[in-house]
């Protein structure tokens, strides 16, 4: 099941973010690197739901929160047509179509909001993610060299985007 996050999901989302960050070397934050309080996440969910410019979708499998897609809009009128995306799925739930379902649900929401550009960055070394997004119509727009340090090794980021309306 894919649904928007409500304020009652704050604890689940905070725990899910911590879990996915601990499982992956490809996310901005590493294992235990940041503290996500339920209160802070709840405030973010409420703020975004009230603004109508951003949304968080949750994936629930067999009653458990297993993935999320954060789509952050922009307050500036000149950039109100775009969303920044962050997608993560627990390792045990990968390969089940959850990422695709989250992405499609977010794209539907974006079209309803007249958003025409979806953006994201991925680590160049994350070949599966790059192939996934390419398969879903995202194109590489450039590389940010040495943008992220993982275990004291510089990593390149790839900018990717998809236009919903040409």
Automatic annotation (TrEMBL):
Transmembrane segments: none annotated. Residues 1-165 form the N-acetyltransferase domain. Pfam families: Acetyltransf_1 (PF00583). SUPFAM superfamilies: Acyl-CoA N-acyltransferases (Nat). It comes from the Bacteria. GO terms for molecular function: acyltransferase activity, transferring groups other than amino-acyl groups. Gene3D superfamilies: 3.40.630.30. InterPro entries: Acyl_CoA_acyltransferase (IPR016181), GNAT_dom (IPR000182). PROSITE patterns: GNAT. This is N-acetyltransferase domain-containing protein. It comes from Planococcus versutus.
